[in-house]
Amino acid sequence: MKRLAFILILLVTLLNNLNAQERWNKEKADAWYAKHDWITGANFIPSTAINQLEMWQENSFDPETIDRELGYAEGIGFNTMRVYLHSLAYKADPKGFKNRVDTYLKLAAKHKIKTIFVIFDDVWDAKPEMGKQRAPKPGVHNSGWMQDPGYPASNEMATSTELKKYVQDIIRTFKDDDRVLFWDLYNEPGNSGKKTESLPLLKNVFAWAREINPSQPLSAGLWDWSFTELNAYQAQHSDIITYHDYEDPEWHRRVIQLLKSHDRPMICTEYMARTRNNRFSNTLPMLAEYNIGAINWGLVNGKTNTIYAWDTPIESGEEPLEWFHDIFRKDGTPYRNDEVNLIKKLNLEYSK
């Protein structure tokens, strides 16, 4: 009898572990989404940081600026920020890194803001290095942003115990923390010409996160509609559907209608590029109409230089006629008052 009881307990434990590693069902995802006000906010990095490493390294971590600039976000009714982490900052100082993440979360909570944390990233510089980060190139969009883990590291380390430890330690530490809205496991996998080379790491980061079984949902945003294999994996393994869209409203509406076929809560985790006719005025009301979370790129004009468009640098560094991203100047003055008034209005109208 004792042996039978032991076997039954073992089977139940195995079944629970298997269930814990499965994608959330629709009912659980819908219930999670229904608990929150309409999710609106921005991708956030303090204006004093050129990239994720400068944000998170001990000697350049800047809680004073973070506090002030999150206050700008609170002032227009934003309730969510999407924030990139970096595995090199963790590797250099795991305990200190997690303490700084907790400090950030305390500051965000002070401003009634929840956080989406991004784990890996395939965009921009493929050779991230710790230490003092380079100065911004005048007039160049995101001239110092770093991939994580980089290239060829994203291939060579796809199965590494080092990356697994990083992912699982971070998620385990904050797995039941209601200041974390959800985990965005991989930003734009396949970017920078990698395409399906990123699939092994994408699969593993989902597997590593599922083993921890956080209380928050997992996702990885769709962003390039030609990446059939990556898109299928991301959509089929994400608890909620997240995506990026920098196109005009007509195209964006078609994307929404197609993604609605997944019958899951949806959040647009990157949008708003003024010179591509993707603006607050024509996109934010549409996202509100469809009850889709809305996270634009950029809060404060700073060292990332994202007021400049991706492919049209201004060598002189003078301010462009029209900003590409971002909402505020460093002193908290809005770039456009009509935009912040619209954001405030919609946030108030669609909050519970």
Automatic annotation (TrEMBL):
One of its GO terms (molecular function) is hydrolase activity, hydrolyzing O-glycosyl compounds. Pfam families: Cellulase. It comes from the Bacteria. Residues 1-20 form the signal peptide. Residues 76-299 form the Glycoside hydrolase family domain. Gene3D superfamilies: Glycosidases. Keywords: Glycosidase, Hydrolase, Signal. One of its GO terms (biological process) is polysaccharide catabolic process. Belongs to the glycosyl hydrolase 5 (cellulase A) family. This is Cellulase (Glycosyl hydrolase family 5).
